[in-house]
Amino acid sequence: MHRRITFALAVVAVGALVAADRLPRASAAEPEVAGNWLLTTSPRAGIEQAYAIIKVESKDGKPQASVLHSPLKGLKLSVSKFAVSGTTITFDTSIGWTFEGSLDRGAKLAVGSFGSEQLPNRAKLTRTDKTELTADEAISKTDVPAPAAEAQKLRAAPLSLRNQAVGEKDAQKRSDLMAKATAAQKEADEKVPGLLREVLSANKDTLFALDAALELVRGGAKSKLTAEEAGQLLTLIEQRTSGYGPRYAQLQTIAAVEAVVAQKSLAGTAEGAAERLSKAPGASAEFRARALTARKTALDALGRGDDAKAVAGEIAKLEVQIDTEYLAKVPPFKPTAFAGRKDKSANRVAVLELFTGAQCPPCVAADVAFDALLKSHKPTDLVLLQYHMHIPGPDPLTNPATIARWDYYRKEFPDDIRGTPSTLFNGKPLAGGGGAMANAESKYKQYAGIIAPLLEETTAVKVAGKVTRTGDKLDIAVEVTGAEGEDTRLRLLVVEENIKYVGGNKLRFHHQVVRATAGGADGVAVKDKAFSHSATVDLGTVRKDLTTYLDEYAQMRAFPNPARPLDLKGLRVVALVQNDKTKEILQAAQIDVQGTAEGSR
Where does the signal sequence lie (predicted)? Predict the structure, then answer.
């Protein structure tokens, strides 16, 4: 279960909960929690999504919970670690999300948050006599104020056009769509802030006002906030999120502070809040580092260099602590070392390809299982490849090579490769999907179970090679024997062993990340049974091309932070011999890079 954080917030007195969009106020009382409860979330004002009806019973003097019904198709939800402490209810679920809420005096309503540690939604438990819900009852809506509805429409228009542009292959059509998106974005930038201010003025004590405040702050310079207005909005957010518990309040408030300090003219308004957040009792080192980073940004903008330098030192120490703690607990289990092939003549190398994303919460289990396989298997038995995608949000580790590989498999397996995480074993899609950290061990066992029989196979195909690095130049020489045919191709992938980048799913390190191809995504035809191929990769050109790609993509969708890992250290080259007709990978080899990067960037 997640770490509970004491977060000092001023609590605004807004009265009792009288409607779905009113703000909650919890109170202390000895609860009686037996009975049926409806779990709902409110991802945005005016919407309530039902997740489950949960039955609570008393067994041996302790509350026990089970899921009676979930209206969400395909969702296999179960509850564990249900606990009541005072007026606080907490529980975990099988999808890796947790609930934390506070009961009202009548023990008829618990208001708090439900979701992952990185992205909890406002949520509540409400007593109910029902044992199941119809599809129509799964989502309830209230009337949205006209200005809020218009703002939603204006915001959606450029995003829809950009998404169309991303998927458009024709250059002219893509250019036309981007021009329309630019015009729609300009209209939204001009009109949305005024509409949000109307919502704030007319709906003061509702979720519509809170959401409008959050959006205005995160709108950055487009919102044209004054220092006074920014301060008022931060206070409103800090106060009104508190009714949903410390976890939700903390994350919403720090996000608002970060948005304000990003504007140099407003940085002084948020510096105090950032400092206060960094000292929250019980806050994790990761959260403290985030708050201190926001404070340093503010101090730099205010010209307080000495103070900023001192804060930078605190951040550096925390980063070391965070990395150490992370590496000690991830993976959260001990991988079982591969005992070796039973058939000593078996020589086929297994290949696991993972499509993932640093902004993808469900990718956590798959990524961590992937990392565990690195610990349990040698590259002479198992080659691991990680392709990052802009799913569900922009990811700076995505590149043209990963997108080309996605397109290659999507064309053949459109029903299997639909999102992240997706996995292929020797070119065959299997074991798709992921989950939260709690699912990582079961995912690892699933992967290992698929890999084990593959390692008992024998093939006549052999791959060997050598890669030498001199400065920013990689010289690659590969030999393939025992394979030929018009559908057989050799692909060379440049892989970075370890990259530190913290995205939305909070994984801190990413391994075996594909950064580029040598000779293009299509590779080269294996022309005869004894085939030799050489290629050269200029890493300076790779960096330049990656920068250009990310710059162009940022014009369509903004990246969540400016970090762009482009060190290109700890490189390896993976050679794949693949049948392009069946997509089966016949043989593979991971080739370590010899030489040094001396004289390079």
Answer: 1-19
